[in-house]
Amino acid sequence: MIARNYRSARCRSELDLVGWDGETLCLIEVKTRTARDSYPAELAVDFEKQQDLSRVAREFMRKVPGRPSFRFDVVSVYLEPGCKPDVVLFKNAFSMA
Question: Which residues contact 80 (CB under 8 A, 6 or more apart)?
């Protein structure tokens, strides 16, 4: 990991985690829930959220030397009482909006 909770003054969203997976820069959105609602946590990363994350990512990428390949990942975390944490990684969950 090279960054956590990266914010920009011009954007509403933040990049929860940024890290390298080999030569690929991963921009990671984490969604945590304490219960399984009517829809999965990862669905909270809707088109509007993807646009916001893309704006922040563009600013972050300007600070990265060169032009590395990158992807957006989403991690769903369920912390339900009495259960082990359930963590699911969705690699390449969406493209730059």
Answer: 34, 35, 36, 86
Report d(CA 10, CA 55) in Å as an integer. 9
Q: 75: which DSSP letter?
A: E
Domains of the chain: 3-94 (3.40.1350.10)
Judge contact between 41 and 86, C-beta under 8 A. Answer: no
Q: What is the pLDDT along the chain (97 residues), one digit of tens a residue?
A: 999 999 988 878 899 999 999 999 999 999 999 888 778 899 999 999 999 999 999 999 999 999 999 999 999 999 999 999 999 999 999 999 7
